[in-house]
Write a structure and sequence with these properties.
Distance between the termini: 61 Å
Number of strands: 7
CATH class: Alpha Beta
CATH superfamily: Glutaredoxin
CATH architecture: 3-Layer(aba) Sandwich
Number of domains: 1
Number of helices: 9
Oligomer: single chain
Helix content: 40-55%
């Protein structure tokens, strides 16, 4: 009897771990189990555990190696939607065309998108940069991209992909982090709440 209980407990742990890991990468279909997992993620991955600073001011390189200061990007918009992603996250890649649609919609609203790319470490750096460029090119993405470095990691704890959040023109984080892939409409609602 004890062995059956142990097997049931192990199976429950495996199912829970699988559901948690899938939702962290952003499945867009909402089920009751996913809702439970998402609520748990929000508890564990709150703004206080994600943001190590209230104001972001980081510098990094774009995918061509040019230095970009995030403050310069933020200052051009009333609100900037920051999306953190990696080639190792299929949901991040899947939402790139939607982020470009969002970027296009935001241009007339004094808002924009900034992509922060996180190196996965699974590939040689030059191959990974090429892969990221190819993904962005296929999506016809023309928003700015900064490759995350120490400067970024000292201010943001990336604990799930994709990770998105809004920043005002002074670099102040506004609202809560958004975990997982979402629709253009959901992202736009989050942004518009900060444009008022």
């Amino acid at each position: 009897m004890e062995k059956k209980n142990w097997i049931r407990a192990a199976a429950l742990v495996c199912v829970t771990a699988a559901a948690f890991s899938l939702s962290a990468c952003g499945i867009n279909k909402t089920t009751s189990n996913q809702k439970i997992v998402e609520d748990k993620m929000e508890e564990e991955y709150s703004a206080s555990s994600t943001f190590l600073s209230e104001n972001l001011n980081f510098t990094g390189k774009d995918l061509d190696g040019k230095t970009v200061n995030a403050k310069d990007v933020f200052s051009k918009n009333k609100v900037t939607f920051v999306n953190v992603w990696s080639v190792s996250c299929p949901y991040c890649i899947d939402e790139m065309p939607d982020l470009e649609k969002l970027h296009t919609k935001l241009k007339d609203q004094n808002a924009g998108v900034l992509s922060v790319y996180v190196m996965s470490g699974y590939y040689p750096e030059d191959e990974e940069i090429k892969e990221a460029k190819d993904i962005l090119s296929e999506s016809k993405a023309d928003f700015p991209v900064i490759v995350a470095g120490d400067d970024f990691y000292n201010q943001v704890n990336v604990n799930a992909f994709p990770l998105s959040f809004c920043v005002d023109q002074n670099g102040k984080i506004v609202g809560d982090p958004i975990y997982g892939a979402n629709s253009v409409e959901e992202y736009q609602k989050a942004i518009e709440s900060h444009l008022k």
